[in-house]
Design brief:
2 helices, 5-stranded mixed β-barrel, OB fold (Dihydrolipoamide Acetyltransferase, E2P), 5-stranded mixed barrel, mainly beta, 241 residues
């Protein structure tokens, strides 16, 4: 069972128990597909600290201030250099009896905060990690890379209709990996240039490890000096199996 103070930007498969101490008014956002989505920021805390839980859709209606929530298989994401707790597709959650033994913990008001990546936990990874350190199902990835290959974009059928997808081989001095980009994101990067990705994630498709930008990720062009390396180590290809 995790404690909030131990979370960091690479935390996944999180199980924790926390008390809901604040719920901000919900707001409406548009998905990339144009769907109207409801989201609310829910501050949860235990005896070690606090973090914002992103609550989407009907989950908002199930939560009240003072509830004790138990989350299993959650994960952490990053946005604007802050950490957010998330309940994903494969997560489970429940509101537990406040009188149960597992709900018996104090809330230290002095530790209630919205932690930044730079100051939460004792084993916090550096803000940017190296390609060689990526593994399956990593989230909140910040990485600097050079584009060394671009495949031809292709059209695939999704549940939202036909979409364009393109794969790039990108890397740094420690290794390389396939990066999948969709639709307009395809045109954000170009061959032989340097970029940084923040808030990305990895997954495996047909047993091939890939890096993804995701809904909340960002990519921006950087200089070679900012990247901190010149050539890519193509001999350590994480997507080659």
């Amino acid at each position: 069972m995790f404690k909030i103070k131990d979370l960091n930007s690479n935390s996944k498969k999180i199980s924790l128990i926390a008390k809901i101490i604040d719920i901000k008014p919900e707001r409406h956002v548009k998905s990339k597909k144009g769907a109207d989505l409801r989201v609310a920021e829910v501050k949860v805390a235990d005896e070690t600290g606090a973090i914002i839980l992103n609550a989407w859709g009907s989950l908002i209606d199930e939560l009240d201030i003072g509830n004790i929530i138990k989350i299993e298989n959650g994960y952490v994401s990053t946005y604007m250099n802050k950490l957010f707790l998330n309940i994903g597709r494969y997560s489970r959650y429940s509101i537990i009896d406040p009188n149960s033994p597992e709900a018996n913990f104090p809330i230290n008001d002095n530790l209630i905060h919205e932690p930044e990546i730079s100051n939460i936990g004792k084993n916090v990874p550096s803000e940017f990690i190296k390609i060689k350190d990526l593994n399956n199902n990593s989230r909140g990835i910040n990485v600097k890379f050079k584009v060394i290959r671009k495949d031809e974009p292709r059209i695939v059928q999704t549940r939202y209709g036909p979409k364009s997808v393109c794969e790039f081989l990108i890397g740094d001095e420690t290794g390389c990996i396939l990066l999948s980009l969709w639709e307009d994101d395809i045109y954000e990067i170009s061959l032989n240039n340097y970029f940084e990705l923040t808030g990305g994630y990895t997954n495996k498709f047909r047993d091939v490890l890939k890096l993804n930008k995701g809904k909340f990720g960002t990519i921006k062009n950087i200089s070679r000096e900012d990247a901190g390396f010149v050539e890519v180590n193509e001999s350590n290809n994480l997507s080659s199996g």
